[in-house]
Structures are given as structure tokens and as C-alpha cells.
Amino acid sequence: MTGTNAPPAGDCQPTLDDLDRALEAIAQVPVLLVATDYDGTLAPIVNDPAEAVPVRESIVALRAVAALGSTHAAVISGRSLADLAALSALDGQVMLVGSHGSEFDQDFVRSLTGQQVELRQQLLDEMHRIAARDPRFRIEPKPASVAFHYRNVADPVADSAVEELLGGAATWADVRVKAGKKVLELTVVDTSKGEAIDALRHRVGATAVVYFGDDVTDEDAFVRLHGPDVSVKVGTGETAATYRITDPTDVARRLARLAGLREAWLAGAGAVPIERHALLADGRVMALVAPGARLVWMCAPRVDGPALFAGLVGGESAGHFTIEPAADSSAPQQQYDGHSLILKTVWPRLTVTDFLDCSAGRPTQRAGRTDLLRQVEGRGEVRWEMSLSLRCKLLIYFIYREVRGWEMSLSLRCKLPGTRLGLLHGLGY
Ligand SMILES: [Mg+2]
Asked: Is 200 buried (19+), middle (13-18) or exposed (0-12) by CB count in 10 A?
């Protein structure tokens, strides 16, 4: 028998298969928010920003996502809201947020103070002065900022202009700098895509968020994501995102897949009828086990306590504890041992025995303690996966008897930050 702990975060890059699995899991949360950047994410980067047309399949997928129940879609862009609405042709169902998270609606400009309006005009004048040296510079005025595009300008000229802006207007009081791909934006308000994500999450009550973005300003959004959220960087460059894909075409593919998964899950595809779950209990705590030794519900330290595993109602990311053969897709048999609440899940080469232990003949478990025992017997490779909501101190022991002439390997996949896993060899229990 061999065992390996899940690798610490950062030791290896998540693969596209990992991303597919993450999308599959997040498609099953109660309330989902799907948000993306625009340029470089929904639309390929082009020399003239006014010609940045979105990939059609992405727009179709976002509209499909937004039309589903308990599912919301948003595009958060550095562009002005009016520009974003015109270029994306998205309206109504898909929420649009412009100016890096500042512009939630067209009335935003009225919230600016007289000083901010004046400062923005000064920034605009200064950029026009610097841009006058080369007609290929492009100035993009926005309600609370001005963007200086230098994509089409030769490096020495562009570098000198950017240097002058960074050493001058960018240092003025109350001016903030946002650097993007061949664009420098100076703004008079202090917001970010991260704040926009937080506001949208709160507004729709999202259980989890998926965010796709390609630029430096999207990092503000990536660092706000946590728990079951999924962050996807588009293209190359340093990132705080967990996953990476190549280009807007890849974004379209993932959005379409997510829309399909979400629709199927909402329609009840793959849902296990409640009567097919088995109950474990110790007089204080109850747990539910779906066919396949898949523990999908358990609260602790009492039956009305917080849920450690809530996959039954919130999908995979809400917590489950699954033990199954890695190479056997046959349906197992599940039955209680006699008149007890000891549950056996049986495959041809593997048996998992589950119970909530009271021990020493007590009718109920002691207050504040829960012992979930899962005994694994058989041969071959075993897949072991645990994802839970950790609100209590947790100790995990792996105890196994040495079995001669049998071969068994245990692969661990665990999403428990800060929790240590280990194997105790040669102990009976
Ligand atoms: Mg972008």
C-alpha cells in the first residue's frame, strides 16, 4: 500500500483537465456569477480598439448563462460603459461595468465632484499635449479617467511619452495610475475590478464566482477570488489566477462548456434521488452517503451544527468525501450490516465500511466529539477525494492493517488548506 499527500499549492501548474473539473464543480453551486474582462478576453486585441469585436460564441454563451436561473453574467472592462455596451452588443441580462469597476450605470458621472471633473479635464489636456508629437497616439476620454494608448507608436517615442506621463501627471494629487497592455490610464477615482467583483457578488448573492481576464488590471479581480471561486488568466504573463488558457477562442470554448454544465445541473441531470442516500448517525450527528461511498452531507458537532460536507445541496465544491476504486466504473452495492447503522459499499475488488462511532457501548457520542470511521478493504488503486467547509479543528488519521499478498494504492486529492494528512503504518483498529 502506498500513499501520497496532495502537492502543496504552487508545486505544479493546474492543467486544462483541472480547469474542466473546476468548471464542472462550480456549475453546481446554488448561485453562480460568471464574469469576464472584455479586450483580450471576449475580444481579440486589435490595433484599433474601436474595432475590437467579441468572439460571437462567447457572447452567445454569456447570454445563455445570464438567462439561467440562479446564474448571473457580467463583463467588467476598462472601457467606458457606453463604449463597452456599444462594442459588446450586450445589454439587459448581462451586467456591464465600465472604467475598471467604476461605472455601474450611466449616472456614474453625476457622482463625480467638481474637483474630480476639473482634474480629469487637466489630465485630458496634458495627454493631448504629449500626444501631439505623434498622430498614432490615441487618447480615450472616459467619465472619470483618460487612457493613453500607444500600441501603434514606435518604442522610443512611446517610451518617452509614457515616462513623461508617469513622472508628471501620474504624480499629481488624487490621480491613480492603471497600466495595461500598451495603454496607460490616469483616473480620478479609486476603484478596481476587484471592488467591482465584490460589489457584484454581494448584489446577486453569489455562492461562487468565475472570472476570466487577460490584463494587469484583472489581477485586482483574481486576488479577490477565494474558496470555490475559479480564476482564469488568458494568455501569458505573471498572474494570481489559478488556471491559464490561451486566447479569446479558448474563453469562448470554456464559457460554452460552463453554460452547458450549468444548464444540465439546473435541470437535475446527474442528481441522485434522496431516497438512494444512506444515513449514518451517532445520536448527535447525522451523515448522508450517496451510492459509491460518496459522503455528501454531515454537520458537526451536532445535527443542527454547521455543515462540513454539503455537496448534497451545494454541489461538489460545497464539500464531499469520496472513496472509490480508481479503475472500476461499475455500480456498487450498498447495504447496512444487519440492523446496525454500519454501511457497507461493495465493488468486486473493494469494500468501504462507514459508520459514525459511539464506541464503548454508549447509545450516543460524547458532546463535542464526532468520529467518522471509513474502513477500506480490497485491492487495486483507490481514489480518495475530500473537499469540505472547515469550521472546526480537524484531525485525519489513516490507519490500515498490513495485508500480505495484496496490493493497494491510495491516491489523495484534498482541498484543505492548513490541514495535514498522514499515513500510520501497521496499526490495527
Ligand atoms: Mg483585457
From this structure: buried
Ligand 1 center to 236 CA (angstroms): 12
Q: Which domain holds residue 137?
A: 115-187
Residues of the chain where predicted confidence (pLDDT) is lower than 70? 1-12, 269-270, 317, 359, 389-429
Rounded to the nearest angstrom, the distance between the alpha carbon of 212 and the centre of ligand 1 is 9
- Cα(194) to centroid(ligand 1), Å: 14
| Rounded Cα gap, residues 408 and 392, in angstroms | 31
Ligand 1 center to residue 235 CA distance, Å? 10
* Dist. CA 351 → ligand 1 center (Å): 51
d(CA 39, ligand 1 centre) in Å: 4
Confidence (pTM) = 0.66
Q: Which of 266, 294, 319 is the last residue of a domain?
A: 266
Give tens-digit pLDDT for 238-275.
999 999 999 999 999 999 999 999 999 888 766 788 88
Same domain assignment for residues 44 and 81? yes
Q: Is residue 429 part of a domain?
A: no
8 A C-beta contact, residue 365 and residue 346 = no
